[in-house]
């Protein structure tokens, strides 16, 4: 089943290389991807798909398209286009860092280190956190962190490993500790965002940007936490990060609905109109696969996670994948970007496609994503 799903995704990717040209997919409308000239936070996921396709198949068409995408990311960084946010890790881990991991291209390594320096500009010494959105001092977003940032920290951990400069790891660890303390709740659910006083770092309150309510648990945020804390454990071996990833995973997978693919928020009222988020299920599955790497053979959570991954991925492949729809641009249907904002609430998400493929090739061939070497 996994191999068939991979082959289907790679066939669609081949078609999309021609379809997209020099542009980058974001989310879809009426099953057609919106494209941009490498200006959005999501553009790394397309290059990540291309690198996964090359690693899995050895097909030079994927490699050439991926290299071309990395060149675009070089131009973007040099021109400083739309980089004033924390998602630099999503952009450059899956483009230039992926190229370094696969090809050991020195220029790709240097580009990725430059990207890490861009991310470091989001560090706020007064508050001791990485600011997610907006300029420093921004009235609304100036003191705000979000759980998504856990997936951007690997860029900083990697930069420390490559350079030996402790500042990268120190910032990543401080931010991970803060996220663990304030974004993860006592019942193992999570806030999407948390606010701090910009002058002294005093905690203020939790909130959300895309969840059902400030106190609800946005499923994609929970999935970011599973994978992000597992990766922080990989880099630091801090057992608290491993424990946190396991807790978040159990909360997520304990709440799978009948078809094993989650709704967009665990607290959203469920009826015939409730939106799903297939991308959240794909991210959580990929994160759980990473988590498995760090569990002993006799760990009580191993069998639980193995079963959860099988359920989640089987649900995606059997009920949400576009297998049998050769003209489809996306791999999995019914992702949601922002249900509250009415922005692509039931469409293809390029990050959903990426994590779906990452999970599949990891299960089939042991190929992981590009969060570490």
Automatic annotation (TrEMBL):
GO molecular function terms listed in the Swiss-Prot or TrEMBL record: unsaturated chondroitin disaccharide hydrolase activity
Signal peptide as annotated in the record: none
Key words, A-Z: Glycosidase, Hydrolase
Enzyme class, spelled out: hydrolase
Superkingdom of this protein's organism: Bacteria
InterPro entries, sorted: 6-hairpin_glycosidase_sf, 6hp_glycosidase-like_sf, Glyco_hydro_88, UG_Glycosaminoglycan_Hydrolase
EC number: 3.2.1.180
Listed Pfam families: Glyco_hydro_88
Protein family (similarity comment): Belongs to the glycosyl hydrolase 88 family.
Full protein name: Unsaturated chondroitin disaccharide hydrolase
């Amino acid at each position: 089943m996994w191999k068939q799903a991979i082959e289907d995704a790679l066939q669609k990717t081949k078609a999309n290389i021609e379809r997209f040209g020099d542009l980058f997919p974001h989310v879809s409308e009426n099953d057609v991807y919106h494209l941009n000239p490498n200006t959005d936070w999501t553009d790394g996921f397309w290059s990540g798909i291309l690198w996964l396709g090359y690693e899995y198949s050895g097909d030079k068409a994927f490699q050439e398209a991926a290299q071309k995408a990395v060149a675009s990311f070089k131009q973007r960084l040099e021109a400083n286009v739309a980089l004033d946010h924390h998602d630099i890790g999503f952009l450059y881990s899956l483009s230039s860092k992926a190229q370094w991991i696969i090809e050991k291209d020195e220029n790709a390594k240097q580009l990725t280190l430059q990207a890490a320096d861009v991310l470091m500009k989001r560090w706020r010494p007064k508050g001791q956190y990485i600011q997610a959105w907006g300029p420093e001092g921004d009235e609304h977003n100036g003191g705000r962190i979000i759980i998504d940032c856990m997936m951007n920290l690997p860029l900083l951990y990697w930069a420390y490993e490559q350079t030996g400069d402790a500042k990268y790891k120190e910032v990543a660890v401080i931010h991970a500790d803060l996220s663990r303390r304030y974004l993860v709740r006592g019942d193992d659910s999570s806030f999407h965002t948390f606010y701090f006083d910009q002058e002294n770092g005093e905690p203020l309150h939790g909130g959300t940007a895309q969840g059902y309510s400030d106190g609800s648990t946005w499923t994609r945020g929970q999935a970011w936490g599973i994978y992000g804390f597992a990766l922080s454990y990989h880099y630091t071996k801090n057992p608290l990060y491993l424990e946190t990833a396991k807790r978040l995973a159990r909360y997520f997978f304990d709440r799978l609905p009948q078809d094993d693919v989650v709704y967009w928020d665990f607290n959203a009222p469920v009826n015939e109109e409730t939106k799903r988020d297939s991308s959240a299920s794909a991210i959580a599955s990929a994160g759980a696969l990473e988590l498995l790497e760090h569990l002993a053979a006799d760990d009580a959570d191993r069998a639980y996670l193995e079963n959860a991954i099988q359920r989640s991925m089987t649900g995606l492949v059997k009920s949400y994948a576009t297998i049998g729809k050769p003209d489809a641009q996306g791999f999995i249907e019914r992702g949601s970007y922002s249900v509250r904002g009415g922005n692509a609430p039931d469409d293809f998400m390029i990050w959903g496609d990426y994590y779906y493929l990452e999970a599949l090739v990891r299960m089939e061939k042991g190929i992981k994503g590009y969060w570490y070497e």
